[in-house]
Amino acid sequence: MSRRTSAVAAGLVYTALLLLVTLGPVPQRLAGSQSPRGVLAWRDWFDASTWTMGSSLEFAANVVLFAPWGALAVLVIGKRRWWLAILAGLALTTLIEIAQIPTARISDPRDLVANLAGTVLGVLLAVSVAAVRSRTQRLDPVTAG
């Protein structure tokens, strides 16, 4: 199996897990914890309380949750088109947050920002590792091959 095929398979599995974690059932309805329109409520984007409520741990967990997805997207798409991985991550997290609106989940601008930050972090890590690896192979083709 080629490296790209492995990355595609891992990316599909990880995306399925992300969807399960972000859209799967929750034990209780968290009533009153979001506006009825979730991330589509534009006023919430400009309300200071949106950015000060919630825990830093939850924000960090969302970043960590999406970082592997960003790295896998670079492996699938390629390091030269890293920006497509970021756009795909933005599309994925936007779809997730919109899909959460009618469910028992919380659709929140902070989650969208944290998920995108995780995607960008994963993309940056993957591109950095690829650049170091490429440079190492150019400097020492005998041990790199």
Description:
By secondary structure, this protein is an all-alpha fold. It is built from 7 helices and no strands.
Count of strand segments: 0
How many helices? The count is 7
Order of helices and strands: HHHHHHH
Helix content: over 70%
Termini separation comes to 18 Å
Q: What is the oligomeric state here?
A: single chain
Please identify the structural class as seen in this structure: mainly alpha
Overall 3D form: elongated
| Mean pLDDT score | 88
Low-confidence stretches: none
Rounded to the nearest angstrom, the radius of gyration is: 18 Å
> What does the largest sheet look like?
none
Strand content: under 5%
Q: What's the gist of this structure?
A:
This protein is mostly helical and about 140 residues long. About 75% of the residues lie in helices and about 0% in strands.
Secondary structure elements and pairings:
Elements lengths: L2 H21 L18 H5 L1 H5 L3 H22 L4 H19 L8 H31 L1 H4 L1
Helix pairs in contact: 1-4, 4-5, 4-6, 5-6
Short key terms for the protein model shown above:
mainly alpha
